[in-house]
Design goal:
The protein is 33% helix and 21% strand. It is of the alpha/beta class. It has two domains: 3-47 and 189-260, HAD superfamily/HAD-like (Rossmann fold, 3-Layer(aba) Sandwich), CATH 3.40.50; 76-186, HAD superfamily/HAD-like (Rossmann fold), CATH 3.40.50. The protein has a six-stranded parallel sheet, with helices on both faces. Strands 7-6-8-9-12 form a five-stranded parallel sheet, with helices on both faces. The protein is elongated and about 60 Å long. It binds magnesium ion. Magnesium ion binds at residues 13, 15-17, 212-214, 238.
């Protein structure tokens, strides 16, 4: 019996499981095609908000994975929902992140303030980006010290890339938390919101496993809400980061293809 036979559907991480950077990992497209052909449900849940869910779905579709846009849920869509609940539609915010992240916030209804006049911000909404600098650290921490809410897409310390582990949103968030003296709310894994959104997409079948490469986020968050966690240890994935190894997964596989063996 193959491991996949034990489950009706899968929540599946993207970075380090399906792709690294822009490169699909070997065998992934074929495995997902075989599993969906066998009737297994798939929803991709990612802490990576650099692209909107529909844009990440497009990359998967172009790679040969037959899904619709609803089957990708990101930490940014969860963040938009939470920040809207707390501060209302149209709230002025300081956004720190990629231009895509800022566009998603603007499309989500927020007034994204210019960095040279952020004084009225009710919240600092953060997602890691490669251009983070001292000026952003200063702006964010001073606003949070003055009472602005601090919400981040994730506390991931690293992100897996083809040449190794790059600093993740959590590394940037830590700098702001230290400088402001306040702790953020995070919306990505291991917080339950992203899993719950994925389970809604899957139609809440009985036997669901989360497939991921980070024990401390993917696996720990899944187990906390009663799902099995399958750890993928593929080369370059975050499972190789020793800081992530405090959680014991229900299953451990080298690559997604091992689900079929
Ligand atoms: Mg990952």
């Amino acid at each position: 019996m193959a491991l996949a036979d034990s489950y009706d559907a899968f929540l599946c991480d993207l970075d380090g499981v399906v792709w690294l950077g822009h490169d699909f990992l070997p065998g992934v497209v074929e495995t997902i095609s075989d599993l969906t052909a066998a009737g297994k449900g798939f929803c991709f849940v990612t802490n990576n908000p650099r692209l909107a869910p529909a844009d990440q779905a497009k990359l998967l579709q172009e790679g040969g994975i037959d899904i619709d846009d609803r089957q990708v849920v990101t930490a940014a869509s969860t963040l938009i929902r939470l920040a809207t609940e707390r501060h209302g539609q149209g709230a002025p915010v300081l956004a720190i992140g990629t231009s895509s992240f800022k566009n998603q916030l603007a499309n989500g209804g927020f007034e994204v303030l210019p960095h040279d006049d952020p004084g009225s911000a009710k919240a600092v909404l953060l997602s890691g980006h490669l251009g983070f600098d001292y000026q952003e650290l200063k702006l964010a921490s001073m606003l949070v010290r003055g009472g602005a809410d601090l919400i981040a897409t994730s506390a991931d310390p690293t992100m897996p890339m083809p040449d190794g582990l790059w600093p993740g949103s959590g590394a940037i968030l830590a700098a702001i938390e230290v400088a402001s003296g306040k702790k953020a709310t995070t919306t990505g894994k291991p917080a339950p919101a992203l899993y719950e959104a994925g389970l809604d997409v899957l139609g809440r079948p009985e036997r669901v496993a989360m497939i991921g490469d980070r024990p401390d986020t993917d696996i720990a968050g899944a187990q906390a809400i009663g799902l099995d966690g399958i750890l993928v240890t593929s080369a370059g994935g975050a499972s190789r980061d020793p800081s992530t190894n405090n959680t014991v997964p229900d299953h451990r596989i080298d690559s997604l293809g091992d689900l079929l063996t």
